Amino acid sequence: MIQSMTGYAASSADSARGTLALELRSVNSRFLDVQMRVAEELRALEPLLRELVAERIARGKVDCRLSFVEGGAPAPSALNDAALSHLKALAAKAQKAFPKADGLRIADVLRWPGVVAGAAVDERELRATTEKLCRRALDELVAARGREGAKLAAAVGERVAAMRKCVEKVAPLLPQSVAAYHEKLKERLREALGSADDDRVRAEVAVFAAKVDVDEELTRLRAHLGEVERVLKQGGAAGKRLDFLAQELNREANTLAAKAASAQVSECALELKLLTEQVREQVQNIE
Question: For the CA atoms of the chain, what is the radius of gyration?
């Protein structure tokens, strides 16, 4: 299905040590751009998160936030003898340099980095939990992008149907414009010369018909509209292709406006340009 590039998802998992929380936000971008905001103690999990996101998301700016909130039973801990010895040596040197300074208190010792060693985190379990959490959040994000994408596809389809009506409305207007020009030219020649030179009239009408011939533009418009419908039906990462088709539709609409031989053709061309611009606005949000 067609996917939007806008979505949001969040997931969390509880453990005996606390809560692991993951948040995903995605917005428009020309390419896949994954921005990580990961707690320092979880940095080793960043490559895993990038890999999982790239498996499911083809385009968009994805903001990934992973955090861990301590909670539950306190983790068992012990004193680090090596850190204690090092701190004791430093304290002795400091006391010698500043004899009148107060000595270390127990609270100061316990707060010193590395003195209290917590239980080692099970890296394998943490990685498995994070992977499960990320996959669950990605399922939610992809589903949200899919719902938004369905709305975008429906909006583009409505504009395409309206553009088809414009194209079919323009097609029969060309012969009428040429016939009207033929009569107007004959009338002007009669007023200027008293008679109409048939050979001259035919030559001028042929030149006029060539200038206002829009058969090629209409054929290309029909082809582009058919391709847009095909891409929408096929789904997948279609945003860039749809954006290119919208540019081509706008090009043909401009040519049609330049060749407009009547007010009706000009109005249809302007309507096509308006609808094309609306299509371009919608496809900017499609993956």
Answer: 35
Residue 154 has pLDDT above 90, yes or no: yes
Residue 11: strand, helix, or coil? strand
Average pLDDT over residues 174-189: 64
Instruction: Using DSSP, state whether 1 is helix, strand or coil.
Output: coil
pLDDT for the residue 133: 93
Measured CA to CA, the distance from residue 88 to residue 112 in angstroms comes to 11
**pTM of structure:** 0.69
Distances (CA, A) of 156 to 117, 202, 231, 279, 280: 60, 44, 11, 6, 9
Q: List the domains of the chain with CATH numbers.
A: 7-73+128-145 (3.30.230.10), 77-118 (no CATH), 146-283 (no CATH)
What pLDDT, on a 0 to 100 scale, did the predictor assign at position 114?
72
* Measured distance CA(28)–CA(158) in Å, rounded: 22
Q: Where are the alpha helices (DSSP H) in the chain?
A: 46-56, 81-97, 106-111, 123-170, 173-193, 198-212, 215-234, 239-258, 263-283
Give the pLDDT of residue 98. Answer: 83
Query: CA–CA separation, 233 vs 157, rounded Å?
Result: 10
Q: Tokens 């936030």, residue?
A: 65
Neighbours of 247 (CB within 10 A): 12
Range with the poorest average pLDDT among 9-13, 121-125, 196-200:
196-200
Place of tokens 């890999």: 51
DSSP-derived 3-state class of residue 238: coil
- CB count within 10 Å of CB 45 equals 22
- Taking residues 139-164, report their average pLDDT: 94
Give the closest residue to 174 by CA, choosing from 220, 219, 215: 215
